[in-house]
Amino acid sequence: EKGGYDYFMLKEIAEQPKAVADTLLGRIDAAGSLTLDELRISAAELREVDKVVIVACGTAFHAGLIAKYAIEHWTRIPCEVELASEFRYRDPILGARSLVIAISQSGETMDTLMALRHAREQGSKVLAICNTNGSTIPRESDAVLYTHAGPEVAVASTKAFLTQLVACYLVALYLGQVRGTKWGDEIQAVIRDLSRISNEVERVLETMEPVRELARSLADKKTVLFLGRHVGYPVALEGALKLKELAYMHAEGFAAGELKHGPIALIEEDLPVVVVVPSPRGRSVLHDKIVSNIQEIRARGARTIVIAEEGDETVVPYADHLIRIPATPTLLQPLVATVPLQVFACELATARGNEVDQPRNLAKSVTVE
Ligand code: M6R
User: Fold this and answer.
1) CA–CA gap between residue 355 and residue 341 (Å, rounded)
2) Known EC number(s) (predicted)?
3) Has residue 322 got a pLDDT over 90?
4) Which of 6, 35, 215, 337: disulfide with 348, CB 3.0–4.6 Å?
């Protein structure tokens, strides 16, 4: 049932192009518009939404953090993202016009379930983004958008994460579509790019051997840091989470702009630092800032592992290891940038002799609070 792979995680990483394509299937019509009738929240209701609140845990929370950039940019609706386990304890401000999105692969995560119950008690509509048909979270929500990743067995979430991102982009674009934001042309272009993205994920998977080699060479390290900006920041958090749970290594993700506010003190000779570089097109100011961050940490002896778009030559002089990803629109970059981090963590875990599919102390779905 592992389909010839040593671990479910490897199989699930490899299934990502299909999972992404399946999650888009039937949701974009021939004219390039989104058809999400399955949402069961009417266009009229969606036009009334004045605030989006996303609740989730772990990897699903990282998908939510990325969704915030997309939702706010394409719809101009304010969006908050909160760890489900914190949500109801701070007396959040919710009302009938708040749309709460609960993201969960399993649909059984107790923290997320309790957060959505709290939201419904306050009169808010809850939309679940879920991978498991008929599970508790979608059953208790007003509406559900299923991700079509297929069963995810490995404890570390991979293909479910990519499909959660796709579902979040679909919701964001759909909200933009029904509300007619000024980003009409951009939305059309992104829908086109999204429908091609599964090929780009496939291309990334074809070039992962150097990443595996690099991971093996770092098997005796104690710490790995991850830096990113904009949507690259949650990608950095996700890279660090994968490494913690699989390799049992100390790993932290930072917003690169925060380096100078403290974390740069951690940089020492030969410390591996993974940097997710935003596209030099689009928000190029951020690109240039992150290139200076790479220079700064390298000047202090860090071993820089740079994930950058194909054709971005500015990073070459400062990268000890360069991992190339295809060019994508800025907001979609996490779909390709996360894949090398999954492969990296999986290979490090293997090199350290860890149980890849069943990391110690963890369960696939956390049904206690
Ligand atoms: O089933 P869920 O998506 O609700 O699970 C949430 C987290 O427990 C989950 O993403 C966890 O962080 C993964 N093990 C990460 O790889």
Assistant:
1) 18
2) 2.6.1.16
3) yes
4) 215
Interval between CA 99 and ligand 1 midpoint (Å): 22
Q: Is the CB of 153 under 6 A from ligand 1?
A: no
For the entire predicted model, the pTM comes to 0.97
Dihedral over alpha carbons 333, 336, 340, 343 (to 10 degrees): 130
Beta bridge partners of 225: 252, 273
Separation of CA 169 and ligand 1 centre (Å): 19
Report residue 75 as tokens. 């719809």
Token couple for 130: 């879920």
Pair of tokens at residue 368 = 């206690």
| Catalytic-role residue among 18, 51, 244, 364 | 364
Give the span between the Cα atoms of 42 and 39, in whole angstroms: 8
| CB of 58 shorter than 6 A to ligand 1 | yes
Active site residue 221: no
Q: What is the rounded CA–CA span in Å between residue 273 and residue 47?
A: 43
pLDDT (tens digit, 9 = 90+) per residue, 231-241?
Answer: 999 999 999 99
Instruction: Give the DSSP H/E element, type plus range, for residue 79.
Output: strand 79-83
* Among 26, 25, 28, 79, CA closest to 56: 79
Q: Is the pLDDT of residue 39 over 90?
A: no
| Average pLDDT for 28-53 | 90
Per-residue pLDDT tens digits for 168-200: 999 999 999 888 876 667 788 889 999 999 999
Average pLDDT, rounded, for the chain: 95
pLDDT tens-digit map of 93-138 = 999 999 999 999 999 999 999 999 999 999 999 999 999 999 999 9
Residue nearest to atom 10 of ligand 1 (CA): 59
Separation between Cα atoms, residue 226 and residue 224, nearest integer Å: 7
Q: How much distance in Å is there from the Cα of 109 to the middle of ligand 1? A: 8
Residue to mutate, 366, 367, 368, 369, ligand 1, most ligand atoms under 8 Å from C-beta: 366
pLDDT at position 132, please? 97
- Give which of 359, 326, 324, 332 is closest to 345, Cα–Cα: 359
